[in-house]
Design a protein that fits this description.
With about 130 residues, this protein is mainly α. The protein has one domain: Up-down Bundle (de novo design (two linked rop proteins)), CATH 1.20.1440. Helix content is about 75%, strand content about 0%. It contains four helices and no strands. Helix 1 packs antiparallel against helix 2, helix 1 packs antiparallel against helix 4 and helix 3 runs antiparallel to helix 4. The chain is elongated, with a radius of gyration of 16 Å. It starts with 10 loop residues before the first helix and ends in a 12-residue tail after the last helix.
Length: about 130
């Protein structure tokens, strides 16, 4: 694996960013318009998935990064649950639900895979690279 020097280079951060952008664009123009609480929740959860990847990466410690990745993964779970709420309230068609859910589910799987990789890795992170 090539050395990644910025969180923006991480595929899971990039995918989280795309998911946030696409969900936000949809809720701004869609049937969500009057459901302010759900808009706030889905926007916050999708943003949290992206932000926690960045924060964990910037901590410079493998274990802290893994912890923040699990928080990110939980936020993606929130997004998936909120998509069901939006679908049940008829804010999303089946096709729209399937599209957003598949993007969120892919992100969940990639995050879980990355966590597994980091758990197997001997890399400690920049914070502890010179410690025994």
């Amino acid at each position: 694996m090539a050395t990644i020097t910025k969180f923006e280079e991480l595929e899971i951060w990039q995918k989280a960013r795309v998911l946030l952008k696409e969900v936000f664009e949809y809720i701004e123009q869609g049937n969500f318009k009057r459901d302010f609480k759900l808009i706030e929740q889905i926007n916050a959860a999708s943003g949290s998935s992206m932000d926690n990847v960045a924060e964990g990466f910037e901590r410079g410690s493998k274990l802290e990064f893994i912890n923040f990745l699990t928080i990110s993964k939980g936020s993606i779970g929130e997004v998936k649950s909120q998509l069901y709420r939006a679908f049940d309230r008829k804010y999303l068609s089946q096709e729209q639900f399937d599209y957003f859910y598949s993007k969120a589910d892919e992100l969940t799987k990639k995050t879980a895979s990355f966590i597994s990789y980091l758990n197997r890795s001997q890399f400690k992170g920049q914070k502890f690279k010179n410690r025994v």
